[in-house]
Amino acid sequence: MVARLRIRTISGWTMAIFGVLAVLFGMVGIFMPELVLVVLGFPVIPRAERAVGDYTPLFIIAASMASFNIGIYYVLAALYNMKRFYLWTVPFRVVTFTVFTLSVLSGIAPGGFFGVGLWELLGALATGGALYYERRRAGMLPTRVKSESGATN
User: Fold this and answer.
1) What pTM was estimated for this model as a whole?
2) pLDDT for residue 5
3) What is the domain extent for residue 122?
4) Contact at 8 Å (CB) between 94 and 128?
5) Residue 152 lies inside a defined structural domain of this protein
6) How far apart are CA 115 and CA 109, in angstroms?
7) Half-sphere exposure of 115 toward its Cβ, with a 13 Å CA cutoff?
8) What b-and-e string marks burial along 60-88, b requiring 16 or more CB atoms within 10 Å of the CB?
9) Per-residue pLDDT tens for 71-80?
């Protein structure tokens, strides 16, 4: 008998929601790469006016395909309750936030790009917080113990 796949935990829901959004944003970028540029605050040059060798729309399509694929991974991980995968995503999403924020602060990217980093950070905090809450609730985190002298360890 095949088990029904379903999302079982708060951390799973954080992954599923992020995954669905990544799939949707990926689809927008695949089919309308210029719209992604507009949303992020980059100047949009009509394709006919782009210099030879300017592959900006192609790069947006490639990055969007990656977003689409990662979104699918996140949804599948949520359906299969792969908490180890959830945990692996948290620090790397914080790294993504850091890199994107530094890109904006250094003037490499427009301010709208900060939103992408912030989205990653909020997702990392939500998933990390949910994982912490679930472990604590299950009694899987160490508790402080009072020693004979009354000090806590």
Assistant:
1) 0.84
2) 86
3) 10-43+54-137
4) no
5) no
6) 11
7) 9
8) bbeebeebbebbeebbebbbebbbeebee
9) 999 999 999 9
